[in-house]
Every structure is written in structure tokens, then in C-alpha cells.
């Protein structure tokens, strides 16, 4: 039985002793690792993931693929050991593809990438594949994807709510073809259909019908990774029809891929430089990337810092003065909790827009951020599609995290400048960054972490 007194213990968020000065090596990207696993599983020959992220979301994906008969061997390079390594650094995963096998049972945890990216792949198996996960996974939207898969020829049994738990009854192949999807609740519906699209008999043509489309960089990441694996993809931004993506049926190549660091998980460390007037360097920051976290260079510069991208990586420097921001974060929704924390410590008001869909993330992030920042004395109000944040002097208290890794790291940022902040369940950062507490302490000690 889980010992909740242990897992939900309060973590005293360390206050910054002064401006932070550190180099922080952040672990691999969740979004890249989980796409790479899917594409490698569907390839015609074995592939490698180097420096994959090893966290709850990626281990759930790997375990799910193994239960579908895909081989995933984990190796650690001989000069290093797993312990003491930032998640997955020094590790390689070899993926041996195979036709997905059923019956199988998949635990999605609360990973959007697992609950959305895997059902299309499972539909290629012959037999039932059951999907279930954490209680919150039952509330996260899936109906558009379920409807789309049915249109494309898959049989899916659910309890009528269009949500988890569900069973995909595959017949060994999926017709594919044209489908309309309202992806205003999550870009992951489109990514999911495109990723397995090359293996559908007719490929897939996905038409987005909703009014808004969040997280478009994540869709570009999907397209980019598909193309690098040899798929032919036509997209709206390559002169194609707006809101329509086409994937031609065909084989995927096994690749040898080094996973980029997770730029969204670099956020709390960059925020630490910004709010303390210090300097943090993130090595291996890619010169070109589809990761939404790259937008932090612009966003945190607008909030008062400056950055340099050179051979050492990204070096971000704050002045200690933080400006509020008025920004549409629709493309970079997963950055909202960290930006909200910085905004609560700023000198002027912020308005964060375009992120209504965050109500459907790990938790209702708009409600959670409002409640928790206000419980420390803040002045945050929810708007129809975001947050209005008026900075006020904050005081200590318990910062609840609702099993949301980004709530936990946002609370840690507040704790840098606000004494006696205690984060509930810091272990929830294990969803994408199990080493967070250690990396945070090492950053504050000025060590190379
Ligand atoms: O495709 C992906 O890897 C992701 C897409 C986004 O989801 P939404 O479009 O549901 O916001 C993002 O928030 C999530 O963290 C990861
Ligand atoms: C929204 C997120 O995750 P998920 O992949 O579970 O949707 C996130 O990591 O901020």
C-alpha cells in the first residue's frame, strides 16, 4: 500500500541565499522521448534513443509498448552508472519493433502522450487492448480521438462517456483515410493520428474543425519527427491547406536519435535566474528545435532578463527586477504555471491568455494556480481563457500540487523569494523530472548540476 504520509510529505522550498549562479543539465524531453518510442516501435528496423528521459510518463510509454510485444532494451554506457545521473543521461534504449500484439493492458497513468498516442497504434494489433490510468485520466478529453479512430475503421469500446477506461479491439490493420477532428481541447489528438498514420492502409488526412488549436509547436514536433523517420507529410504551414495534415502510407526507418533536453523543464531554473538576478546556463540547448520551451528565451527576456545562446548552451541572466507580461500562451500552454509563478513575483500586472484548455491538463491548472498563489497572499483571478495576476507581497504556507509536476516546480520558484513555502508532494515532479529536488538544491549551492 502506498505510504501517503511519505509521498505527500511537505517539502520546504529552499529560499535563494542570493542571486543563483549555476549550470544545470536538464534531462531529456518528455515529448520527444515519447514520440521517438512510438515511431521506433512502428519502424521496419531497430532504432536507438540516446539520453532518453527516464520519468513516470516515459516509463509508462515504454512499459505499454513492451506489453504490446515491442522490445525495449535499456543500456547504460560503461563509463557511467545510473545512480547520480540526471534522468536518463548516459543511457540508451534500443527499440526492436514488431507488429503490436494483443491481448494487452496499458496503464496510462496521467500521461496525455500515453493515453492519446497509443490507441491508434493499439488498433493495429489483432485483439483487445485495454487502457486505464489514474483517476484524473478518466476526466481528460479523449472523445474526439475515439470518434476519429472509429471513422478510420477501428472498433473501440468505452463506457459511453468518450473517455478512459476503454478497450481498442484491433483487427490487425486500420483502413485510415480522411477524418475531421476538433482538437481545441488538445493538440495531442492530431499528433496521435499522424504518428501512426504511415501504418494505416490509406495513410491519414486529418482536418481540424475547432475554433482554436493549442500547442501548435507540438504538432510541428510530430511532423518533424515523422519526416526524419522517412514519412511523407503534407502540412498547413508548408503551403498546404489550412488546418489539414496528410500522411502517406509507408515504412518508417529505425533511427539513432539523441533526445534534446526538456526545455519546458529548464523553465524553473531559468526562472530562478530571472527572479534572483542571477545567471543559469543550460548546456545542450538546441540551436533549432520544435520544443515550445524555446519560447522562454523571448518570454523571460520580455519579463526582464537577457539571454545568450552559444557553445556553452543557453545562459540566462536576470537583473532581479521582473516585469509583468501580457501574453497569449496558447502555443506554449505547458509553460503557464512557471510563468504565473514569475508573474506573481513581478513589479507589474500580468495577463496570461489563450490557455482555457489548461483546465483539462494534469489538474485544472487555472483554478489550482489561482487558489494556491492566493493562499500565499497573492491576487490572481481566473479569466475566461487564462489568468490575471496582480503581484502582492506573499507569505509562507503550504502550496498544494494536485499531482501536477508543473504546479510543484512553480511553487519552488515562489519559494526562492518567499520564506516558509512548503510544497505538497514534491515527488509528483517524477512525472517528467524525478531529479528535480536534487537539481534544485545543487543549483542553489552553485554546483554544476
Ligand atoms: O504533444 C505533446 O507532447 C504535448 C502537447 C501539449 O498538450 P495539449 O495540446 O493538450 O496542451 C502539451 O501541453 C503537453 O505537455 C505535451
Ligand atoms: C500537459 C502536460 O502533460 P500531458 O503530456 O500529460 O498532457 C504537461 O506536461 O504540462
UniProtKB/TrEMBL annotation:
Annotated ranges, domain Enolpyruvate transferase: 16-438
Active-site residue list: 334
Q: Which UniProt keywords apply?
A: Amino-acid biosynthesis, Aromatic amino acid biosynthesis, Cytoplasm, Transferase
PROSITE patterns in UniProt? EPSP_SYNTHASE_1 (PS00104), EPSP_SYNTHASE_2 (PS00885)
Primary location group: cytoplasm
Q: Which reaction does it catalyse?
A: 3-phosphoshikimate + phosphoenolpyruvate = 5-O-(1-carboxyvinyl)-3-phosphoshikimate + phosphate
Q: What does the record give under GO molecular function? A: 3-phosphoshikimate 1-carboxyvinyltransferase activity
Annotated phosphoenolpyruvate binding sites: 30, 112, 140, 188, 365, 406, 431
Instruction: Describe the family membership recorded for this protein in Swiss-Prot or TrEMBL.
Output: Belongs to the EPSP synthase family.
> Could you give the subunit structure recorded for this chain?
Monomer.
> What's the protein name?
3-phosphoshikimate 1-carboxyvinyltransferase
Amino acid at each position: 500500500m502506498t505510504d501517503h504520509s511519505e509521498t505527500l510529505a511537505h517539502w520546504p522550498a529552499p529560499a535563494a541565499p542570493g542571486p543563483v549562479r549555476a549550470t544545470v543539465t536538464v534531462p531529456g524531453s518528455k515529448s520527444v522521448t515519447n514520440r521517438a518510442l512510438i515511431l521506433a516501435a512502428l519502424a521496419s528496423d531497430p532504432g536507438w534513443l540516446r539520453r532518453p528521459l527516464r520519468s513516470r510518463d516515459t516509463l509508462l510509454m515504454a512499459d505499454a509498448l513492451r506489453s504490446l510485444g515491442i522490445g525495449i532494451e535499456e543500456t547504460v554506457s560503461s563509463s557511467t552508472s545510473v545512480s547520480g545521473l540526471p534522468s536518463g543521461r548516459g543511457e540508451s534504449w534500443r527499440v526492436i519493433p514488431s507488429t503490436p500484439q494483443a491481448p494487452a493492458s496499458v496503464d496510462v497513468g496521467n500521461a496525455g502522450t500515453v493515453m492519446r498516442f497509443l490507441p491508434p497504434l493499439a488498433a493495429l494489433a489483432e485483439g483487445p487492448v485495454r487502457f486505464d490510468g489514474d483517476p484524473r485520466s478518466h476526466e481528460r478529453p479523449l472523445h474526439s480521438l475515439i470518434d476519429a479512430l472509429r471513422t478510420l475503421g477501428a472498433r473501440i469500446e468505452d463506457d459511453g462517456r468518450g473517455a478512459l477506461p476503454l478497450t481498442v479491439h484491433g483487427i490487425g490493420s486500420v483502413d485510415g483515410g480522411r477524418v475531421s477532428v476538433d482538437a481545441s481541447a488538445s493538440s495531442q489528438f492530431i499528433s496521435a493520428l499522424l504518428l501512426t498514420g504511415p501504418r494505416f492502409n490509406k495513410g491519414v488526412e486529418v482536418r481540424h474543425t475547432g475554433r482554436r488549436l493549442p500547442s501548435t509547436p507540438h504538432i510541428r514536433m510530430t511532423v518533424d519527427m515523422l519526416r526524419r523517420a522517412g514519412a511523407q507529410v503534407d502540412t498547413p504551414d508548408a503551403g498546404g491547406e489550412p488546418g489539414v495534415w496528410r500522411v502517406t502510407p509507408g515504412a518508417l526507418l529505425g533511427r539513432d536519435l539523441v533526445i534534446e533536453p526538456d526545455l519546458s523543464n529548464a523553465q524553473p531554473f531559468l526562472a530562478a535566474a530571472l527572479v534572483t538576478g542571477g545567471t543559469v546556463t543550460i548546456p545542450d540547448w538546441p540551436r533549432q528545435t520544435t520544443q515550445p520551451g524555446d519560447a522562454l528565451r523571448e518570454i523571460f527576456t520580455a519579463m526582464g532578463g537577457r539571454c545568450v545562446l552559444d557553445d556553452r548552451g543557453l545562459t540566462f541572466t536576470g537583473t532581479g527586477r521582473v516585469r509583468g507580461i501580457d501574453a497569449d500562451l496558447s502555443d506554449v500552454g505547458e509553460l503557464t504555471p512557471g510563468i504565473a509563478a514569475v508573474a506573481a513575483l513581478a513589479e507589474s500586472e500580468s495577463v496570461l491568455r489563450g490557455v482555457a484548455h489548461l483546465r483539462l491538463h494534469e489538474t485544472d491548472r487555472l483554478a489550482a494556480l489561482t487558489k494556491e498563489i492566493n493562499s500565499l497572499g497573492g491576487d490572481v483571478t481566473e479569466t475566461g481563457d487564462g489568468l490575471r495576476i496582480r503581484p502582492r507581497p506573499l507569505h509562507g504556507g503550504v502550496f498544494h500540487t494536485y499531482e501536477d509536476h508543473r504546479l510543484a516546480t512553480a511553487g519552488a520558484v515562489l519559494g526562492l523569494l518567499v520564506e516558509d513555502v512548503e510544497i505538497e508532494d514534491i515527488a509528483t515532479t517524477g512525472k517528467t523530472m524525478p531529479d528535480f529536488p536534487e537539481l534544485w538544491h545543487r543549483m542553489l549551492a552553485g554546483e554544476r548540476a
